Amino acid sequence: MTDRKNPNKYAVVDLEATGSGSDAKIIQIGIVILENGEIKETYATDINPYEMLDYHIQELTGISNQQLAQAPDFGQVAAEVFDLIGDAVFVAHNVRFDANLLAEALFFEGYELRTPRVDTVELAQVFFPQFEKYSLINLAQELDLDLEQAHAAISDAYATAQLLLKIEEKIASLPKQTVEQILTLGDHLIYESRLIIDEVFATMDASIPENVEFVHGLALRKPQGQLEAYHLSDDFATNLALLELDERAEQAQFVQLIEERLKEEKGVHFIQAQAGIGKTYGYLLPLLARRKENLLITVPTKILQQQIMDKEGKKLQELFCISISSVKSPAHYLKLDSFWKSLERADENRLLNRFKMQILVWLCETQTGDMDELRQKQRYQSYFDEIQHDGQLEDKSLFMDWDFWKRLQREAISSRVLITNHAYFLSHLQSQDYLWQSRLLVIDEAQKFLLTAEEFASQTIDLTAILQTLQSKKDKTEQLLDKRLLESTAFELNNLITHYRSSGQRDIVPEQLRQIKQNLLEMKMEEFRDLARVLEDYRQFWLEEHQLEDKRVSYLRASQEELLDVAPLLPQVKTFCISATLDLSKKVSLADLLGFKDVSFDRVSHRHYNNQELFLASDMPAILEKSREEHAAFILEEIQALQSVGKPILVLFISIALLLAVSALLDEKEIDHLAQHKHGPEASLKRRFEKGESQLLLGTGVFWEGVDFANQEEMVLVITRLPFDNPKDHFVRKVNDRLRREGKNPFYDFSLPMMMVKLKQALGRTTRTTTQQSTVVILDNRLLTKRYGRHIIEFLQKEYTLNTLPLAELTEAMREFFD
């Protein structure tokens, strides 16, 4: 390591260049000199590269060819630059690029730059572990850095200098013992980045912050004591005013229905209310104000669960001191024993060691131990699989009283409000009944509860993992009979998968599994016990495949022949089922399908949306007649046209394959976008989209009904296809079989109304507030060509303005709406 002539002098450098490759040339230099925590000097100059800039670089930096034509070449400023930075530590945001490029340019002018290098990207990742992204623009937003003009060298250098000071402040705020632990891993940081930590560490005292306690060498944030909750007013409007929110007419009607049903001691109450009326506060506030029982809220997805915790839950905690817990599977939480053991082990992987440092910092901050707070963990999933909680705690655990999962369980028991998701609730009805006992139950978006119940009643076996185990056992066994049985089982499973891939036939009849069942019965090997049990207990089987990173994973799915009767499984407590629809048709209700017999039905009157308009093209092509490639090209063309409206665009798909095909075409056109199943987890994509990182988001699945975009004041929503469920889906087939036996029409009594519910919920994603404006274009010609299309149009026109006009006129009509 090079000796530092002045230990307190840093040269914070940013370069703009003709590109990002090895042949890039410098076009702009910005330097900020820091000494003793203060900015002492700044330097900025353009550099003439003697080549024309491409359009992308000009757009990114705002630098023109005419501007550079007047600038000095690098040789004219090299001595001045070297004199300024030659005796300082070289600091940059992505130091590898800036330092290498500048060092090479100086070398060709006769100067050798051998100063230590510090990377603020990696230091920010370590000391701000809960951030989503670490670009300078993102960090400027998170840390309130002064970034006047991104991608202008002096502006970026100034913001990076501020970032370095913020990093130093953060290090100084940590316990000295924690910083010392980080330094034991510090050599795994890029270049000499640990110099910053060393320098701050030398000035720290050994006192322990009041909000931290050391447990077996780990600094852990002390749990916050729960303050006594305030009594809420019986008047809903008063509570809403304290939250600085305005009451809406439909919300007031919804609250009135809740309050009327609360007068009854018991019962199951279904309430129909459309999206965007403020249902969450609508049931939380009156239930908290008027009943003494604790509440259990179950919602469709983990994203929505976290959304409620971050918004309504956080406000209720801050204003009324209401204790609220969110319950998810233990795998979301850090197991302190496992992390402690990983610290004791020497690892050579640089990324893994950086995550160890991040977690040491995070443990001084987190109240929950929920690893979802660590936004970057998917970059080294195997390590997080190692340290995630398994729901078990040994009697000799070093962290018995501090274990996050056990603490959550204790807090959940006494929490005034418990929030979970449908899948977790159904999976733990029996094993965690102590959590659900004596609580008022609210099933939010109850129409999704039906499908989750079916998922809960089915079983999934990872056949790819089974085949790997079969091969491993075959290689190790010396028993000829076992070897033959293992070979036969692997052959049968591979045959099923090969047939599925070649024919597309998902269904498996029990007879096709007879030989596998017999083999497993004879082998009696513990590794295949779950597969044997599923083959014995279930009668309906099918195959599924998912693409995970660079490999295809095959799954065997199994379910019972009849729909699961959900109602008898639920706690016998007062229950509210909230849904966008109660009657799927004149003959079928949601309560029927869930198995409830004696229930009440209430409905909030519909309102007409004036802040959202729907558009349907009169000259749309027949999408069902198009190939996937043709369909993707059509959607791309429409996206490009809609971008001229100048608003954020959410595009919803029902097919992952089509979504990825459109994303690939956008890449070819170099159109910036975010795509589900390609650019990260759903929650991450939502946050990045709302922050404006991209104006275009492609989504499916939870984006239809589990994600709100309340922070976007104006949006364009594109429905690429009507969201009918796949008629070959086993759940849909079960419902259809049951309805046929009851003399009902499966399409008109279930498939069509369920599609319309899903469509309506999608429309509600972009009308979460009365001030939010959005337009929706439905790119499916079946509304105009199919007999059932008129039912859909009549359904939509009850609440929305529906405009039918040629494709060429859509964008202008949307501009007029927003204007």
TrEMBL record:
Keywords: ATP-binding, Exonuclease, Helicase, Hydrolase, Nuclease, Nucleotide-binding. This is 3'-5' exonuclease DinG. A motif (DEAH box) lies at residues 444-447. Belongs to the helicase family. DinG subfamily. Type 2 sub-subfamily. Residues 619-813 form the Helicase C-terminal domain. CDD domains: DEDDh. It comes from Streptococcus oriscaviae. PROSITE patterns: HELICASE_ATP_BIND_1, HELICASE_ATP_BIND_2, HELICASE_CTER. Gene3D superfamilies: P-loop containing nucleotide triphosphate hydrolases, Ribonuclease H-like superfamily/Ribonuclease H. InterPro entries: ATP-dep_Helicase_C (IPR006555), DEAD/DEAH_box_helicase_dom (IPR011545), DinG (IPR006310), DnaQ (IPR006054), Helic_SF1/SF2_ATP-bd_DinG/Rad3 (IPR014013), Helicase_ATP-bd (IPR014001), Helicase_C-like (IPR001650), P-loop_NTPase (IPR027417).
